Amino acid sequence: MSTQPVRVVRHPDGVVELRLEDPGRGNALDLPTAEALRDAAVEVAADPGGAVLLRAAGAAFCVGGDLRAFAGRGEDTGAYVHAVATAAHAAVRTLYELPVPVVTAVRGAAAGGGIGLALVGDIVLAARSARFRLAYTAMGLTPDCGATWLLPRLVGPRLATDLVLTNRVLTGDEAERLGLVSRAVEDDEVDEAAYRTAAELAGGAGEALRAAKRLLRDGAEGGLSRHLDEEARLIAGLAGSDEAQARMTSFLAPRVRARVGSGQSAPGSPESVS
Question: How far apart are CA 63 and CA 161, in angstroms?
Answer without folding.
Answer: 20
